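Rotation project, supervised by the postdoc (A.L.). Task for the rotation student: set up a whole-complex structure prediction and record inputs and outputs verbatim in this book. Inputs entered:
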Amino acid sequence: MKRIVLALIAVPLLSASVAEAQGDWWWGAEYTVSVPLGATKEFTDNTSWRGATLEARKILSQNLTVGLLFGWYVFDEAKVQTVSRPGLDVTGLPYNYLNSFPIQATAHYYLGKRRGTRLHVGGGAGVTINERRTDVGLYRIQETKAQFSVFPEIGVSIPLNWSLRGVLAVRYNYSLKSGDTPAQEYVGISVGLAWN
Amino acid sequence: MHRPKFNRVTWARGRVLGAVAGLAITTIVACYPGEPSNIGELDMVTTVYDTAFNYQTNRTFFQLDTVIHIRDTANPADTVFISRQFDQEMINLVRTNMVNLGYVSVPSGTQPDVITAISITASRNYQAYSFYPWWGYPGYGWPCCVGGPGWGWPTTVVTSYRVGSVFIDMIDVTRSISTDTIQVIWNGTLNGPFEGTEAVTAQRLDRLFNQSFVQSEYLRLLAVSPTP
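Outputs recorded:
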């Protein structure tokens, strides 16, 4: 887990060096609140207040960027449950956790003047590593799966100065079913900063 | 807004801003939510029953007046001493729940339909884990940062805790006699850390024993005791 933290911290540092060499990039760091849906909601019903999104966007034209997105969203739920099977009933307090790490290529289209407030629509596709964990009693069940994932996005950015913008974005994240791991879906609402 | 030419100071400021924002956000994420806050949250109640058995044929029960303490005689060093302080309370809990389900307690010497028996065991579990104290050992960050914050050396901690299990068995007397083997037709297993104060332990026992019967509603004798 600490390696992931380090990687997320290192991304803006390392990518800034690339930016200097390659030209016009935007970088973004956002705090993300996520609302679970579908199988994600069944597993972890609570709204996730722990989430981070880091982005790099290469400016191709005045209205178009492509880039990369990294995220880390933590969902959890704890509720006393009785699981029943024929001839067997088990009651405990399972703690369910979902750590979701999307790594996706993105494309965005921008409306409005380049130096003004801009609306954007976009999306991405890639892989989301979903780590589902249940701690119950003194036992732990854990499963980690890389699932193909996509997201559409709509957002707005407001210029704060010539190289800094405030960003608000809403993304619907969907990871396709993989083997026995069900499709994962949640809506992320991000606020943060973007700079170049 | 006019954008000036590339400025190294501004660029460096942006890089620091990014690092700070990334650090702040990932720190928020790293605060893990919802860990168990008390020992009772680690308890589990498991009940097993015979899907082919008609529990409505029973009417009477006899509760053994002694709790069986199971000890590992092959490995006495691993044996965890279990006090008999709560034995009578456990017996009373089973007896009360059985009566509430409609069963009639019979005295010793009278053949009951079922016998209920309680046994208990405990063992010691060991857990070892290592961690790196982040920025926690000033001066220990050799060779890079003598005198300043460093990554420190990994610290290994070994903890041990006692785990206990209580078994409640319901034995079919008629079938046991006819087959000459003990026929358990229902079992409740209460499992959890064998730790805690006297008051907490009493509360946990009360909750866990009651739960084992609550989730076994099929034991209720409907002709005698309709569902409440």
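Student's summary: The helical segments of chain A are 2-22, 38-43.
Supervisor addendum: The radius of gyration of chain A is 19 Å.
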